[in-house]
Design goal:
The structure is a homodimer. By secondary structure, chain A is of the alpha/beta class. In chain A, about 40% of the residues lie in helices and about 25% in strands. The first copy, chain A, starts with 17 loop residues before the first strand and ends in a 6-residue tail after the last helix. Chains A and B meet through helix 2, strand 2, helix 3, helix 4 and helix 8 of A and helix 1, helix 2, strand 2, helix 3 and helix 4 of B.
């Protein structure tokens, strides 16, 4: 129907790759967010099996069959989740049994598992539960230690098709204790290594320009991906190779060449947020931080306290959402507020200093700005945000202008303030 | 290669259906959870366009082409996200341009948008940014109001193929302001009506049991979906019909019959969070609230201040993450902390009273608990959370026991505290 791409656009097929197939109407109408596929993809990636494609189809036999046909043309492994429950909309088992021309028979081990499960939770079994012990006779049943629906492994022409329940913790248990070890045994794999470099304070295209020469010099088997999210860009290096030690060394060298180019923008070489990186830094130095927030309305405190163990380095926050509270709780000078307004360098300076003293911490962060959707003026347009960081003898300040929605402006304010603190602690923040 | 299913397994094709195609290696290796597809599926479902299949493929031209070929065989609409950025790993635009045999030309309107964007954020443009203004000559470019990569709409044999950026807020804006209206215009659909009933304080299965008879009495063309999310269950009624007025009336009647059954649990008949419902209630009564937080670490303040205009009814928060600050900032009695601990009815009572007085508000909410992953004891297991609501003459308290992860326990604490405030204001909270 449409023109085909010339051959130079087509890459070579990589061996032993996988298609992840998820089944269920709830995935298509957006009622459930598909976290299973992401988890499976990440686990397969760790053992060097590339995922070629992820497909979600509805609880319809024709769609499931079509997806199986298509997947078997391109992949050696198909991992299926969903549609194994006891209710009438769950048709995966029957469809697979037809597809592999294999009748359903009661499996004694599975029946034993199901019976034990109901005994354990002290609930009676109904007919549909007994049916869960039926599996296609030509499959290898996979035990479900946390639920009632067994998994199934089918083999055909050196290919492997695995069906698992859609309930995340049942699926994860099955993958970890049976499927992943089995795949490791059956398929020869290339090694895959990923390194994530977290950057902030520079936009995607600017970053790309900065590191263009470095990127062009990467060997063919090491690829770079840009994953931008508000004020941060994650750089992901992915390499493939047959010799793991050689590959690791090559990747390490690539990173070492990258670091000096964007030194000021890197805050971690692990896949972690700025709040985690700041926390580690403070913890190493046995230092603490407290926050004074206006426009971010508690979001910075939340971002920080979402890190387990943050009580080791975080003191607390004063969210002075109303101006009179900036005077009353944070002792901002009345004259300052009158003369410069709540969104000003002078105000955030006082807030940062005061919160540091009041909450007895080594650093104080203060944020005041106009998050939107209302409240801007010509002089202080919507999205204007002032940040101050106080330590024992200096207050550093910076003005930002964000141009997004309320929630995004709030998030960008908090992330940028944390990155600013990171640079202040590292001693490489320059007051402009 | 495998046996085919007999014809009785194949359902009929539904007209005007859609395939969602997401592009990007990060989706396959599980580095990013695909929330875009869920959102798109949910929006399409609202306007009566069924999603037949969701496919995620890597940043490889051959895989993108294969997915397009397959999708065009079964669907009338293909919505693509991802791979439109300015960097080298983004190949969607070039692949589509080849696929539709259409060369890339600079579009004046898009160039104008891109130039304005960089002017607005006050950053210089580099070559790769100019390239973003190039689009295939046979497509309709779609404006990107929040970023630099334009969307593209291709038409072929009455079918529509749309390509959008993968950045969620850019994609959502494009869908809302252009793509969804365009699809509504181009494809004939039945009328679909949705009503959402927001409930809290009751679990999904318990709620289902309570409203079983009502649900069974619903006419065949009106369906109920349960959308549980931590402490809240959204009930979504979806009806289809050819006569819109009749359908609306039937749906309205169904809701009127439901209300008396679960009166105590409903907080809104709009699809809005408890923080919005509480805000409306306070605004109507010209009253204000302030918060004192321990384990929620600023999350409740953030949830409240995420509502635009919340400055009309919200004063601020004291996040006393450390115990000494509960004494110092919130004047909790030293003896109380020694005798009962920070996670106790006595402590939250004092916190709620004090924050109400200190921040000069009509209501004070206080939360103290153990969010995890560490810190539980036999007497106060992990997940124990005390909430107090103070008004001018009473303090209401409630103890919760949550059993989830740190972030979920934090979210459930905040949501339940806000629902508790809702009921206190309504005068139907009963101190147990």
């Amino acid at each position: 129907m449409f023109v085909k791409l010339p051959a130079k656009f087509l890459n070579n097929k990589i061996m032993s790759n996988c298609v992840i197939l998820t089944i269920g109407d709830e995935l298509l109408i957006g009622q459930v967010i598909d976290t299973n596929s992401a988890w499976i993809g990440s686990e397969l990636s760790k053992i060097g099996i590339p995922v070629l494609r992820r497909v979600a189809v509805s609880d319809r036999a024709d769609e499931i069959v079509k997806a199986l046909d298509d997947s078997l043309q391109v992949a050696d492994i198909i991992l299926i989740t969903g549609g194994l429950g006891p209710t009438k909309d769950d048709i995966t088992k029957h469809t697979l049994s037809q597809y592999f021309n294999s009748r359903l028979v009661t499996n004694a081990d599975v029946l034993n598992d199901v019976t034990s499960f109901f005994k354990k939770v002290n609930r009676p079994m109904i007919e549909s539960n007994y049916k869960q012990a039926e599996v296609p006779e030509h499959c290898i049943p996979i035990r479900n230690k946390l639920g009632t629906a067994p998994g199934m492994l089918f083999e055909k022409n050196q290919k492997v098709i695995v069906s698992m329940p859609g309930v995340p913790f049942e699926m994860k248990e099955m993958m970890t204790s049976y499927v992943l070890p089995e795949l490791k045994k059956r398929f020869s794999r290339e090694h895959i290594e990923h390194i994530t470099i977290m950057t902030a304070g520079v936009g995607e295209s600017f970053l790309a320009e900065k590191i263009r020469h470095w990127e062009q010099a990467l060997p063919h088997h090491i690829k770079l991906a840009y994953l931008p999210n508000l004020s941060q860009v994650r750089l992901r290096l992915s390499g493939r190779g047959s010799d793991l030690q050689v590959l690791k060394k090559e990747m390490q060298q690539a990173v070492e060449h990258l670091i000096p180019i964007i030194d000021q923008n890197i805050f971690s070489l692990l896949d972690e947020g700025i709040e985690v990186a700041v926390g580690k830094l403070l913890q190493t130095k046995h230092m603490t931080v407290a926050t004074a927030e206006s426009c971010t309305g508690g979001y910075m405190a939340h971002k920080i306290t979402s890190v387990p163990g943050s009580s080791d380095w975080y003191r607390g926050s004063i969210v002075a959402y109303q101006n009179d509270l900036k005077e009353q709780l944070l002792q901002v000078n009345h004259e300052t507020l009158l003369q410069h307004g709540a969104v000003s360098e002078e105000t955030v300076k006082q807030m940062a200093n005061q919160v540091r003293l009041l909450l007895i911490s080594d650093y104080g962060i203060a944020i005041s700005g106009i998050a939107g959707p209302e409240g801007g003026s010509d002089e202080k347009p919507l999205g204007t945000v002032w940040v101050a960081i106080a330590d024992h003898d200096t207050v550093y300040t910076k003005k930002f202008l964000f141009t997004r929605s309320r929630l995004q402006n709030i998030e960008m304010s908090a992330l940028n303030a944390l990155f600013m603190l990171y640079r202040v602690i590292k001693g490489n923040f320059t007051q402009s």
